Amino acid sequence: MNLRSLFVLGVISLGAFGCAAPAKQPRVRVACVGDSITAGFGFVGVKDSYPAHLQALMGKGCDVQNFGVSATTLVSEGDYPYTGRPQYKAALDFRPEVLVVMLGTNDTKHPNDGSLDATNASDNWRFRDKFVGEYEALIASFRRANPAVRVYVCLPPPANPGRWGINGKTILNGLIPLVKRVAKEAHANLIDLYTPFKNKPQLIQADTVHPNVQGNEVIASIVGQALSGKPVRKAGTTGALAIPLIRS
Q: Is 16 inside a domain boundary?
């Protein structure tokens, strides 16, 4: 049975360090949708973003594309909604077979929340009652583009303490329960990127929000394991994260 047949059955067959695809086999299309944590932010940049590391882990049998847009919100009434950006249409046109979504961090923004530089922050959190419905609509749009798409939604890393109105407490107590609800109601797989970063400031940039290069490598390893069902790591490195996939 070839890779694509296995994929239809809900299993991606991986080799030791990547997608094991026979010669001339079409590559499995993986779309990474999200905000600046997906796009790559600060000194990290696109080449060290988690999707770039994920491509290295998954190998030539997968085509991992980064459709992240910095500062975007999930909710359309937020100050910079993802669905209004051209990357959203490009991701739909890509018709991914695997969709990995990490949105919501910018939806937690509200002024005077105690985070750094929060005085003049946008008040996106006031639209939180629309978050679940619009997240499920986003997922549905990708299922219309490709009914066979496998969907993974991610709990974002923590903010310690946060900046620009992105507040760590709001992420933990407000956003994460909403994302878990989306995973359950939309029958999507849930990947926990919060717990592995908890109390690990060495994985976060000085802005206290965005993962650094090492942090993005951690995210890629966790996402790669979720997609493959087994630990993955770069050739020549030691150790692999054994973070189990959380299913809805």
A: no
Asked if residues 175 and 108 have their Cβ atoms less than 8 Å apart, the reply is yes
- Is residue 166 assigned to a domain? yes
Q: Range of 125's domain?
A: 26-232+239-247
Find the CATH number of the domain harbouring 146: 3.40.50.1110
Q: Is 135 a domain residue?
A: yes
pLDDT tens-digit map of 26-83: 899 999 999 999 999 865 557 889 999 999 999 999 999 999 999 999 999 999 999 9
pTM for the whole structure: 0.85
Q: Which residue has the higher pLDDT, 3 or 104?
A: 104
Contact in structure between 62 and 19 (CB atoms under 8 Å): yes
Tally of domains within the chain: 1
Sheet (strand 28-34) strand order:
62-66, 28-34, 98-102, 150-155, 189-192, 246-247
Kindly state whether residue 2 falls inside one of the protein's structural domains: no
